[in-house]
Amino acid sequence: MQKFEITATATFNPGTKLQLTKEQAAPRLHNLNDLGKGVYAVVRRVQFKVGEVIGHEGELPKSFASLVEASASGTSGTSGPTVDDLKKALTEKGIDFPKKANKGELQKLLEEAEKAAADKAAAIKAKALEMNELEEADFNALPPAEQDKLLADAEEALGK
C-alpha cells in the first residue's frame, strides 16, 4: 500500500481498502471492516482530516489529487512539516495564505518567503561592503556589533 498524507478533508467510499493505525480506525470502526494487519475495507463512507497519513491500496481517483500528497515514509508518519507547522511559520512571518491552501501551496509560499528574505539579506550585505569599501573577509573579521551597525546602515540606505 502506498502512504498518503491528507492535505484537505478527504472522503473514501465503500469498497476502498485502507491501511490505518488503531487510533485512526477506532472512531471509524462502525464504517470499516477489519481485514487484519491494520488493513480495513470501507463499508460506509469515512472521512480523514488534514495531516492524517493513511495507506491506500490501488490507484487513487484523479479527484483526490488535491486532497492527498504522497508520503515519503514507506511505513508511517509524515514527510517534512505538517500543514499546521507551515501555517504557523507563515503566520509568524506575517504572510497571508488561503485558509484552504494545501500542504504543497503552503510549502511554496514559505519557500518563496525564505528566498526573498535571503535575497534581501544578500543585497543588504553587498551594499554594506560597497558603502564601507570592504572585502567580505574583512567584514566577517569585524566584531558582530560592528557588522550589525554596518548592515543597519546599508539597509537604511537601500530603503531610501
Give a verbal description of the structure:
By secondary structure, the chain is α+β, with helices and mostly antiparallel strands. The chain has five helices and eight strands. The chain has helices at residues 22-25, 83-92, 103-131, 136-141, 144-159, and strands at residues 2-6, 10-12, 17-19, 32-36, 39-42, 46-48, 53-56, 68-70. The chain has a six-stranded antiparallel β-sheet with strand order 4-5-3-7-1-8, with no helix packed on it. Strands 2-6 form a two-stranded antiparallel ribbon. A hairpin with a 2-residue loop joins strand 4 (32-36) and strand 5 (39-42). Helix 2 (83-92) runs parallel beside helix 3 and helix 3 (103-131) crosses helix 5. The N and C termini lie far apart (57 Å).
Arrangement of strands in the largest sheet: 4-5-3-7-1-8
- Poorly predicted runs of 5 or more residues: 74-78
Helical fraction: 40-55%
Taking the alpha carbons of the first and last residues, their distance comes to 57 Å
- Write down the overall geometry: rod-shaped
Overall pLDDT level: 84
Kindly estimate the percentage of residues that lie in beta strands according to DSSP: 15-25%
Series of secondary-structure elements, N-terminal to C-terminal: EEEHEEEEEHHHH
For the CA atoms, what is the radius of gyration? Answer: 24 Å
Major sheet size, sense and barrel closure? 6 strands, antiparallel
Class derived from helix and strand content? alpha+beta
What is the count of helical runs? 5
Oligomeric description of these chains: single chain
The tally of beta strands, per DSSP, is 8
